[in-house]
Amino acid sequence: MSAIIIDGSMVHYEALGRGRPIVFLHGWVGSWRYWINSMQVASTSFRAYAIDLFGFGDTTRDPLRYTLERQADLINRFLEEMGIGKVALVGHGLGALVGFSYIKQWPKTVDRMMAINCPFEYDSVNTRMINPNMGDLVEWLAGRAPEAVSALADASKADPQAVSASMAGLQGNNFFSGVRDLGVPCLFVYGPNDPAVTMPTQERLDAFPSHMHQISLEGTGHFPMVDNPTQFNRLMTDFLALDSGVSPRELQMKEEWKRRVR
Question: Considering only CA atoms, which of 114, 251, 252, 262 is closest in space to residue 187?
Fold first, then answer.
């Protein structure tokens, strides 16, 4: 286990590979652990990091640090302490919200971002997420498949207050308007069978600027990286392989993704 101390608090992370840096940010259920497969794939070309946010996994529990802004500051301090420059972010659910909160404050340090099952507004999140029981969330969102049980083994470590704090932050912020004009290439990925987060409306998609794009991974739910890791990792590597600054809409040129574009 790897860890650093940030402002007196232990922050757990894991790292694989060599190359340009990419940081994986987990969602409301689980920890860094369900990124293992994606980290292994990314590590062939990147230095892949996965962090446990405050209140999750083996990172310190501290309710004063559960806001989206404080979680984003954790990312900033981690990158500073590790000497990491411009970075690619892959965030899921909560991790995507934290990633966008980070981009709003430090946009020039992010080369691109992949946001998985990211809610655009408070009303697009199922009310079961507001005051959660972590055990119930795991079964509801991932079922009892052996691969899901293993990937989410750290779910019981999560502080429900950390989940609730992020919901309050989502309710009080308009993330789309805050990041759409910053020019950071963003690929939004959704599992159509996700019971927790509703996909954006067509009206919302039509309002995307040219550097933003959405792809739906058919047959997946809240955890596309667990439901279909081969498909998810292929999309991730295709996105990361784009030249810096290139819009993710260029992925439409590949026939295999045209069928999945909404």
Answer: 114
